[in-house]
Write a structure and sequence with these properties.
Elements: H1 4-7, H2 13-20, H3 24-36, E1 40-44, E2 52-56, H4 58-79, H5 84-107
Antiparallel strand pairs: 1-2
Helix pairs in contact: 2-3
Length: about 110
């Protein structure tokens, strides 16, 4: 489930680039666009002024909910049919499969 508090937690640009597998230039270009659209904000870290942090703007959260909200509600309803232990097993399985697929992908040369 999307966590509103998590969505509001500022992150460094490098973390975004890492998650999206973008280089520094690509990350900067993406952030510039998102900032122009009013979806993210760059702020200086209050504890380290050399560091920049990105904050998701409320408009982006609203946009995300308008697009993904119905799917999230449907998925949560489907999850209600499972016991917590079953969900734990499913989570372990999906995590293991994702890890294995990532290893295979990393070991497979590009065509």
């Amino acid at each position: 489930m999307l966590d509103a508090a998590r969505a509001e937690r500022p992150v460094p640009p490098g973390r975004l680039g890492e998650q999206l597998r973008l280089n520094s230039a690509g990350t900067t270009t993406l952030i510039d666009r998102l900032e122009r659209l009013g979806l993210v904000r760059r702020d200086r870290d209050t504890t380290d002024r050399r560091r920049v942090l990105l904050t998701v703007e409320p408009q982006a959260i609203d946009l995300g909910w308008s697009f993904f909200g119905p799917a999230i509600g449907t998925l949560l309803t489907a999850m209600d049919a499972f016991a917590p232990a079953e969900l734990d097993t499913a989570e372990r399985f999906l995590t293991a499969m994702t890890t294995a697929a990532t290893r295979v992908n990393a070991a497979t040369p590009d065509p």
